Amino acid sequence: MSLQDKLDAERTLRLVNEALRAAYEETITTLGRNGLMPGVLVEEAPFPDFILPNIEGKLVSLSALLARGPVIVQFFRGEWCPYCRLMLDALVAALPEIEAQGASLVALTPDTGPPARDAKVNHSATFEVLSDIDCGVGLAAGVVFRLPPLYRARMQAVGTDVPSRHGNDSWFLPIPATFVLDRDGRVAWRFADVDFTRRAAPERILAALRQLAAPD
Amino acid sequence: MELTQVRYFVALSRSLNFTRAAEACNVTQPALTRAIQRLEEELGGPLLYRERSTTQLTELGRTMLPHLDAMLMAADSAAALADARRRQPVASLKIGLAPGIGCAAIAFAVREVAAILPDLMIRLDEAAAAMLIESMLADMLDCALLPQDCDLPDRFNHWPLYDDRAVAVLPACHALADRTTITADDLRGETLLHGERCGGFACLFDATWQGQARLRRCDGAIGHLLDLVDAGLGLALLSERIVLPARLVALPIIEPTLTRRVRLVAIAGRPQGAAVSGFVKLCRARRGPDGP
């Protein structure tokens, strides 16, 4: 079963709940029409260099990772999101092949502290999980939006304390975009969709890496 | 949202003048106006009233400004830290510590910042919370670790970092020293030395177990107080994070548990250098009940 098949099954199961369906539809409709997508970094664009803290209390530098090879920058919403959990499992499974291509993977979430640690520990992930504090790098990549009211209310109703998780009450989230960067830090391939139940297929990521490794 | 849209909006909110904001951002005024309009579309309403001679923030504009400003600063600081790693400029980090908090919990973050910025100058100031707040307002300190219970002016951001638990500190020759834990019963009749740098745990204990132990006021440096504990003047209730000399024993207090929440405090919206923003981000990323 592919990642997208699993995501589709999860969506079908969850959207039986009418409040959730309304919140989901409001989010993707709002993002679809409000001009978010044209601002997302496109192929060939240089990805802005950054340093962010990882969950172990170290600073991680994009340029230090790029010095070793291509880098996959994966934005995700947080361990609270079932679609992110499926995606993290898929990335964990794909990691040996990613590393075999000489690439590294960093996963950026606006979550801080224990919830961000859970995202690594619960999936036995060995890639870097970074706290994108106040969504700064997400903004630079053009992937941040403000959660619309229905979805915000839905999260409050189910007890997902976003202000505590993020350390701010801004209600900003990234769309779960994927950027494959070449060694010069340029976007070689990207996946971005306003529908957060759609994610980059690991095989597409691997194909982009193979393309980078191929002689010109 | 795009970085430039947010940057233009924050600049415009400062000058409330399209011409000056466009100059400050080095763009044409139509480009700035278009970017603001697109941001307004995304955020679902006007951020500014545009009247003939005046420009004012709308309620939505006022609500969104601190959030957008914080996000812009986070974007700029992530890039500035990367740039500082290449250029290695001289930088400073001035951290206030409320009495009895110590810097053991944040030492990892200072070390990480110093690894990126080898010429980092570090200053740690221990003082009463009110004095640290004054120092931050006067730009003498970049940020501070303060207990949860102190009042803060509106201009401050604060993030809970960890829960500080008290231990009982006693000489190795004390009758209780071979215990593994301490309860309120064990402290009956004991003398507790307490002072302004002890974190208030003895007073917290006395508030619920009044008369159980005798409190003796003893102000001054923690090192001197520990010398008195060693000499047998009494016990001390201190943060479990304070590093003790080998001749003293620290035992967890299990009944009652004495805790206080420690938070990181900084002035909202004040531009921070790469060292400070890196430090604050590291601390926020590692927050949790058990701390870094």
TrEMBL record, chain A:
InterPro entries in the record: AhpC/TSA (IPR000866), Peroxiredoxin_BCP/PrxQ (IPR050924), Thioredoxin-like_sf (IPR036249), Thioredoxin_domain (IPR013766)
Pfam family, one: AhpC-TSA
UniProt EC number: 1.11.1.24
The keyword Transmembrane helix is assigned to this record: no
Catalysed reaction equations from the record: a hydroperoxide + [thioredoxin]-dithiol = an alcohol + [thioredoxin]-disulfide + H2O
Keywords: Antioxidant, Disulfide bond, Oxidoreductase, Peroxidase, Redox-active center
Residue intervals of the Thioredoxin domain: 41-214
EC top class named in words: oxidoreductase
GO BP terms, alphabetized: cell redox homeostasis; cellular response to oxidative stress
Gene3D superfamilies: Glutaredoxin (3.40.30.10)
Transmembrane among keywords: no
Gene Ontology cellular component annotations, sorted alphabetically: cytoplasm
GO MF terms held by the record: thioredoxin peroxidase activity
Family: Belongs to the peroxiredoxin family. BCP/PrxQ subfamily.
Biological function: Thiol-specific peroxidase that catalyzes the reduction of hydrogen peroxide and organic hydroperoxides to water and alcohols, respectively. Plays a role in cell protection against oxidative stress by detoxifying peroxides and as sensor of hydrogen peroxide-mediated signaling events.
Name of the featured protein: thioredoxin-dependent peroxiredoxin
Organism name: Acidiphilium rubrum
TrEMBL record, chain B:
GO-annotated molecular function: DNA binding; DNA-binding transcription factor activity
PROSITE patterns: HTH_LYSR
GO cellular component, one term: protein-DNA complex
Domain of life assignment: Bacteria
CDD domains: PBP2_LTTR_substrate
Family: Belongs to the LysR transcriptional regulatory family.
This protein's name: DNA-binding transcriptional regulator, LysR family
Organism: Acidiphilium rubrum
